[in-house]
Amino acid sequence: MVLTNARLIFPDGIRDGLEVVAEEGKITAIREQTRARGEDIVDLGGNYLAPGFVDLHVHGAVGRDTMEASAEAFRVICDFHATGGTTLLLLTTATAPMDKLVEVLDAVRDCRSSNDAIAGVHVEGPFISKAKCGAQRAEFIQDPSRAAVRQLLAHADVIKRVTIAPELSGALEAIENFHTHGIGVSGGHSDAWDEDARAAFERGMRSVTHTFNCMSSARRRGIYRVGGLVEFALSEPDISCELIADGHHVSATLMKMLYHAKGPHGICLVTDATAGAGLPDGSRFSLSGKDCIVEGGVCLLSDRSALAGSASRMIDLIKTAVDIVGIPLQEAIAMATENPARAIGLETKGRLAVGADADFAVLSPELDVLRTFSDAEEVFSLEKNES
To answer: The whole model's pTM is what?
Structure first.
């Protein structure tokens, strides 16, 4: 397959006059545009060609939830997010009893070989702060005991990322254990002080979960003002920051501050989409047993006391980053592709490069997703979807 007549988006710029050759699911050449003709030529009509998007934080979509532990639910979730250009994602759990989490992990292992969009699992909770639980169920929150950590480590082949509050009893040992077993550790849902975050960093924490949301910030301790997890993340170059850039979770000023602190390489756009994503305003859904509603393009607990994840796709975040924050398109795309792929150690994902997987998102000049390809196979077409 040859993808031609497109504007290719690389992290350092947008280039015309090139075409991409894909064979057996891999990019085998990026070359000067030719006049080749034939059934294997895909003319992209002058639209943008980006790598397929990588989302590190997806709970659900269109009424379905990761916690269902069902291959059918997983497929529905992946298919919805493909309409937003996402070709790879981490199914993300909510705080629940350990046996329920294990059920989800087993279900993902069973279906991962038949669903190429699933990179693994992001375990968000139960090792989080009750003071910063957000929409998570406080009754299932627990400290990371050695026994509980061992239960999760038995599924290290499936778990790619764990969110943990560094200040919890046993957290530092758990962080070191997860890191040693090749599982990425992200600080989040946390009331940590600066020194708690530093200690976690020294033991392997390299990212933070949905920056600014459910996260400690600078406050007084006695007569002194001390930073929290937010300030530590902004100040440490080796920390990667998740950002829900849906225009609801984080204000434009905070997003601009994060961009200027971390630069284009230090941010991973994440949807944190829940089962309300893809449902019309007024729709009701459940998040780990909590009643929620879609309202004004965002997901809320039904009593409107807290956000309950987003209703967005990755392309919606990219549009916000470009239009509201003023981030150059190629940098916003990198935040949805190369950066998250790097964060979970996937060298062949999120790049337009020879040897990378042939995962693509075709975007209009208005940044609508026109087509999505996974391993050189079309998994979404706006034209076919509307017909």
So the answer is: 0.97
